[in-house]
Amino acid sequence: MSDALDIALRLIAVFVVFLVFPLVIGQTEHKVMAHMQGRLGPMYAGGFHGWAQLVADGVKFAQKEDIVPAGADRRIFQLAPAVALLPYLLVLVAIPIGPHNAVGQALDAGIFFVLAVMGVGVLGSLMAGWASANKFSLLGALRTAAQLLAYELPMLLAAASVAMAAGTLSLPGIVEAFHWWWVPWQIVGGVVFFTAGLAELQRPPFDMPVADSEIIFGAYTEYTGLRFALFLLAEYAGIVVLCALTSVLFLGGWHGPFGADGLGWLWTLLKTALLAFGVIWLRVTYPRLREDQLQKLAWTVLIPLALAQIALTGVVKVVISS
Question: Any stretches that span the bilayer, and where are they (predicted)?
Answer without folding.
Answer: 7-26, 76-97, 109-132, 153-174, 180-199, 228-252, 264-285, 297-320
